[in-house]
Predict the 3D structure of the following.
Amino acid sequence: MWQRIKRIFRSIIGWFIELGEDPVLILKQNIRDLEDQVPALNENLAMIKAQVNLVEKELAKLNAKEAEFTAKIKAALKGNRRDIALNYATTLEEVKREKIAQEQQHKVASQAYEKASKMKRAFMLEKERKIAEAQKALSNKRQAEWNKKVADAMQTFQPAGIDATHNEMIDKIEREAAQAEAKLEMAMDNVASEHYDIEQDAKSLQANETLRQFEMEMGLHGDASAPPEPSDREKTIGKLERELG
């Protein structure tokens, strides 16, 4: 039972760790950490530089004392005051020893400052490189997320979905358009046929009338005053003409 409980707690902790290990969040935090290190680095560099400046100021004072005591020793010797020159010489030796120590400190401090400056330059270059890599990775991450959204959206346009309905509606409209066009052609054919029949019947009546006139002139018709009996079709045509008139 205790082992099972431990596994449960470990799984929960592992889930929180995985949740917190978001690459985007970690990269952004790394960028902030790199930026936060710059002020501390500058502060340490400033402290080292301050130490160098202090040592240089102390050396300047010691050089001035050395020059002062040297001049006093020479003046005392010129005045035949060897005892005074001896005292100045003792003090001068102390100044020289202190100067040697300060020069050593200045050398160490200068070397430390030079190393710190090189470290800062190297750190800044590395920082810029890491930030550029992180920003590129974040940009790629955003592009990948956008590509995934576009891909997910495009997957919805499948033949089983919108495409099938779209094609079905297009086919239906084309069938309806074809049927309407066929009906129009049939109607035009019927109108043209009827018009042709009427024209033919009218020509036949006109021809019969012309022929009857010739027969009357030639005396070939028995009853010139009685027109020939029209046929059933001529009766129909005459009735249609009277209705149209």
Notes: Residues 185 and 191 are 10 Å apart (CA to CA). The chain has five helices and no strands. The helical segments are 2-20, 23-78, 82-155, 159-218, 232-244.
